[in-house]
Amino acid sequence: MIETTLQDQVAIVTGAGQGIGRAIALRLAREGMHIVIADRVPDTASAVAREVEALGRSGLAIPTDVAKADERTRLVSETLQQFQRLDVLVNNAGVQRVALPQDVDEAHWDVVMDVNAKAVFFLCQLVLKHMASVGSGRIINIASIAGKLASTIQHPIYNVSKAAVLAMTKTLAHAYAPQGIRVNAVCPGIIETAMQDQVDREFAHVTGKRPEEIRAERQARIPLGRAGEGDDVAAIVAFLAGPDSRYMTGQALNATGGMVMF
Ligand SMILES: NC(=O)c1ccc[n+]([C@@H]2O[C@H](COP(=O)([O-])OP(=O)(O)OC[C@H]3O[C@@H](n4cnc5c(N)ncnc54)[C@H](O)[C@@H]3O)[C@@H](O)[C@H]2O)c1
User: Fold this and answer.
1) Among 158, 190, 193, 229, which is best to mutate for testing ligand 1, by the most ligand atoms less than 8 A from CB?
2) Is 158 in the active site?
């Protein structure tokens, strides 16, 4: 099927109640899409749904814990019931936990891998069933430069989870290309969100520095001279969702201000 404009198409964005996911939801709505906001926090999901509606598009909040199989199934079936179509899935929901490798326990592994990796794969699987039946669709997975570099030793399992996202993006891209479905990833670097604030606070605690010092040090490592914003990531997602990227699949595009160049 030839891809055309995003106007009146339907996207699910997970973790869209705040941060990068909210920016993606609003950007895709500005492109003319109807948006399903899937976040485990009902209030923020509803608030973003109202913001989507204010842009003249349908915004449907479906409170969802993506780590739970029955909630993933309900998310997809309610979306199809409401809109009779599903064109784009953005797997954005994610969590991070800090621990040195020797201190990681199985509970740490499970929570990070369940949300960041397992939920992404199985939500892809559910949505791909529908997309394959209509012969079109795009999936965009929000990974991280952590999946390429694995450089922060304080986030060992987060790094593993994001590498898993990159591997499944490539595998699914290969598997579903013949059916007209494209699967790509975005690797953000340092983006100003609540998650990044939490990382700063935790690093400050570990190093004995102030969070502002940590922030200044990391900004100094960004060639473009500033941390990113949700909109910087959302612009790349809109490109990957839309027709201008029609010849791209299995890619992992960086949004890092030049911090990572491969
Ligand atoms: N902020 C950064 O610098 C950065 C860098 C690289 C990658 N990322 C990735 O971008 C994505 C978004 O990060 P953010 O910075 O906006 O984080 P954030 O913590 O500000 O927002 C994450 C959202 O996901 C939701 N969420 C968490 N677990 C969920 C679950 N089980 N089910 C449904 N929703 C859930 C939260 O409620 C929240 O609304 C994540 O996958 C993160 O790993 C962020």
Assistant:
1) 193
2) yes
Residue nearest to atom 24 of ligand 1 (CA): 15
Q: Is the CB of 141 under 6 A from ligand 1?
A: no
pLDDT at 237: 99
**pLDDT surpassing 90 at residue 2:** no
**Spatial contact of 69 and 122, defined as CB atoms under 8 Å apart:** yes
Q: For residue 176, which of 125, 230, 216 has the smallest C-alpha distance?
A: 125
> Where do the domains of the chain lie, and which CATH numbers do they carry?
10-190+229-255 (3.40.50.720), 192-227 (no CATH)
Task: Say how far apart CA 106 and CA 96 lie, in whole Å.
Answer: 15
Query: Is the Cβ atom of 20 under 6 angstroms away from ligand 1?
Result: yes
The predicted model scores a pTM of 0.98
The closest-lying atom of ligand 1 relative to the alpha carbon of residue 17 is 39
pLDDT tens-place string over residues 228-256: 999 999 999 999 999 999 999 999 999 99
Partnered with residue 45 across adjacent β-strands are: none
Q: Which atom of ligand 1 is nearest to the CA of 19?
A: 16
Measure the CA–CA gap between 169 and 23, rounded to whole angstroms.
Answer: 22
